[in-house]
Design brief:
Layout (H helix, E strand, L loop, with lengths): L2 H35 L7 H10 L8 E2 H8 L3 H13 L3 E6 L2 E9 L1 H22 L5 H21 L14
Antiparallel strand pairs: 1-3, 2-3
């Protein structure tokens, strides 16, 4: 190969390394600062994601654990501990699926809905404003677009990411 092609490959590899390292740093800061933002409520970013997912209209009446795990792109095992802690705090409950008495659905309790609507939403809105300071609406749209493309590529690398049953509303 020519030196020109090798130089281009080195440049591309360097940019890719920098990009993925920056994503790693951002993910760590999201967990650290997001958990700190909700510290008064004892909620972690993982719990925040679960509670937020359960507020979706499609999940309002409850969602099977497997579908929730698929939506959040986590394993059922990783989700189980988070669900148990939120259930112990009475923020969510497991209920019998009216369509299938053998199946269980996860849904917010009245206490969980109140925590989300009255306490967490205003704090999260302020957190988003601070974290996205200086980003225009167009910047945010572009960022979502590029993160969606990256997520699609990750799913292509890991076919198990889409292996679970995915409800239409969760896509």
């Amino acid at each position: 190969m020519s030196k020109h092609i090798d130089g281009f490959r080195d440049l591309t590899a360097g940019l890719s390394n920098r990009l993925f390292f920056r994503l790693y740093q951002c993910a760590n800061m999201l967990h650290k600062t997001g958990t700190r933002a909700l510290d008064a409520y004892g909620i972690t970013t993982q719990q925040w994601a679960v509670l937020g997912a359960l507020t979706r209209p499609a999940f309002e009446d409850g969602v099977p654990v497997g579908d929730l795990a698929a939506f959040l792109l986590v394993t059922r095992q990783n989700l189980a501990g988070v669900l148990s802690r939120l259930e112990a705090l009475d923020y969510l409950e497991r209920a019998v699926d009216p369509k299938d008495n053998r199946a269980r659905l996860v849904r917010l309790t009245a206490k969980g809905r109140s925590l989300w609507d009255e306490n967490m939403r205003p704090v999260i809105a302020d957190y988003y404003d601070e974290a996205l300071a200086g980003f225009s609406t167009e910047d945010r749209i572009h960022m979502i677009h590029y993160l969606d493309k990256l997520l699609g590529n990750f799913k292509a690398i890991d076919p198990e990411a889409d292996a679970g049953r995915r409800p239409e509303a969760a896509r």
